[in-house]
Amino acid sequence: MRRRSPRRLLGVLAAAAVAFSLFSSAPTAGAADTATAPAVSTRPAGTDARPLSTSTPVVFVHGYTGNASNWVTAMNVFRLNGWSGSRLFAYEYNSYGDNVTNARGLASFVDNVKARTGASKVAVVNHSMGGLVSQYYLKVLGGNTSVSHLASIAGANHGTTSAGACLIYTTCRQMYPGSSFISQISAGDETPGSTRYATWYSACDGIIIPFTSTRLSGATNNNVACQTHLGFLADPLVLGQIARFVAS
128, 134, 152, 202: which is the annotated catalytic residue? Predict the structure, then answer.
């Protein structure tokens, strides 16, 4: 049997390290390639073939330690579904700072996108800790008036015990279940305004614990049979569902 090369062994070890960590790193090159599949693979079964409404700008909000590269596959899927690349934007923030500051930054970012595109509203798609940033913006800062759709992918919307591994950082303390930050965004109406809300979550997540933390009262909550926390970022079927949700 042919021996594995040192480079391949290093690749296997690196992949294992990422899966074990809390970090929301970018999809691998192999995973990103799935977004180049025919558009039909991104459309959930049972949907019709009506043209999508793809004029709404989309703002993607990454998770803990993430960055814009996390959204390579998602942006490809949105382009396959008719979006122009000029209407797809990725917001980056400081994962180790304060999610109140991060939410205020998101508010400014959305205002800039609206001014740049001439749109009255944007759609927000978040992942992991990006759920906290988004919820604070929509609920506490009144951002729901500027957001037509909110899609939360494995969002830490009610916290995750995994944040216990990084409590030296303010953002992780805010992300821990029962924090004053989570109490603030969970109190009362979790889905304020006329914004349409939807979440995608899975028992196989492994990072959002409990995995039901993602669900929002008043949202369309989609239980995915089995998908990992980082796997969501490279899942063309789920990302296709989200594209159609935003286009609805």
Answer: 128
